[in-house]
Amino acid sequence: QRCLSLIKSTKFLNAYITVAEETALKQAEESEKRYKRGQPLGVLDGIPIAVKDNFNTAGIETTCASNMLKGYISPYNATVVQKLLDQGAVLLGKTNLDEFAMGSGSTDGVFGPVRNPWSYSRQYKEKSVPKSHSEDKDSNWVITGGSSGGSAAAVSSFTCFAALGSDTGGSTRNPAAHCGVVGLKPTYGLISRHGLIPLVNSMDVPGILTRCVDDAAVVLGSLAGHDPKDSTTIQDNFKPFELSDLTDVSKLSIGIPKEYHAPGLSSEILALWSKAADLFKNAGAKVIEVSLPHTRYSIVCYHVLCTAEVASNMARFDGLEYGHRSDMNKSTESMYAATRREGFNDVVRGRILSGNYFLLKQNYENYFIKAQKVRRLIANDFVKVFGSGVDILLTPTTLSDAIPYMEFIKEDNRTRSAQDDILTQAANMAGLPAINVPTALSERGLPVGLQFIGRSFQEKQLLTVAKWFEKQVKFPMIQLDEHNGNLKQISKP
Questions:
Q1: Which residue from 303, 220, 298 is spatially nearest to 257, judged by alpha carbons?
Q2: Which positions are catalytic?
């Protein structure tokens, strides 16, 4: 009930697209009965969670923040949603995103942009002085990052305890960094994608957003493992683990990839990154500079592979089986065209167009095949580094802290995504597990996170190290002081 009332009082954040109040209360009542009988279904029984609106949920609308799926109610649950419900978790609602998860700001969905809860925090307000009196104090709110911005904002504003995102090029870790929460992208194939509406099948992974590393491990334990409905999941059984406290880091080897000192990286984040490396060094870990030479081709390579898979995936939205259908009835052809023009925004249409261009017979070898080869080189860079004895890589998650919405929308989605994915994207190409850990507040009073990348399927080691780091940095709690009206500043859209 507290979560539901907080969702109402933080409605201006626009974190949720659909709130499933009735079913949530029903689930909570059932859970309470189980606890009274002393038979909870699992560790997550009764825990309020939120799910990004590109996971299918039976009986609750799934829109992908697009006109194409407005009003679409799936007949089945995504595997991850089903697993959460089987554990007794309470599904509060579906969270906002960039349309079809294409973007890095959570600003491009048809339901409007998500606002970063830190915009209304004491920490940010104390530091941000309006440039002039005339400047509307409501216009300097900052973005959440994307594309899982709704889920990150929901966890960060205490309206739920954990949320699902998806991560194709950084869509869970990027908003986690901007909203000061933990964002885990597991190894590709560890968690089922069945029922996650696909963006790039070969890179998509359901992501986990929580307020601390331990919670991420708990949720991972409930979701991981083989799914007969997703042939890309691992065959082995996954044993849930509890994270032990790391007391001795002297056996650890931490790699610092020099290519991640990317153009546009803020001096503030660079300093934090060095400080974090020193933290490990001073605690006795071995910290070495490593090279991932093909990182610089990663973004162009990703652009080709991403748009090609998008072009193929979006073909299913033709106005026939489900979703929006245009009234244009001159011919089937014109109905298709009109449906897709009305249903998709410019970003999605642009990616479909470039993807089909790269897949044309005369371009296929030069673009798609070449990009596949470069992807293999990128993955091999990681194999070499981890083969040389490095356990974990430490990198920044984002180039800077969150920027004001007004500034963000000055650039188009493609430019923004290319800039913002640069530090997170290679882990998706290589299918490796990676996690954002909130590290400190910037000079502007906004969260900054660092990223740890682990070896394939070594989530336990990755999370153990992340937990040690989390304990050292003592990231401050967001101060959303309801009494001074912060959360009452509900602005008209």
A1: 298
A2: 52, 147, 171
Beta strands 16-19 and 447-453: pairing type? Answer: unpaired
Give me 222's structure tokens.
Answer: 């409930």
139 preceded by cis ω (within 30°)? no
1-298+370-473: in CATH 3.90.1300.10: yes
pLDDT for 438-447, tens place per residue?
A: 999 999 999 9
Asked if residue 185 lies in contact with residue 172, where contact means CB atoms within 8 angstroms, the answer is: yes
At 121-155, the pLDDT tens digits run 999 999 876 655 545 567 789 999 989 999 999 99
304-315 confidence digits (pLDDT tens): 999 999 999 999
In this predicted structure, what is the pLDDT of residue 136? 58
Contact 148, 52 (CB under 8 A): yes
Average pLDDT for 320-345: 93
CA distance 171 to 420: 10
Please list, residue by residue across 436-451, b when 16 or more beta carbons sit within 10 angstroms of its beta carbon and e when fewer do.
bbbbbbbebbbbbbbb
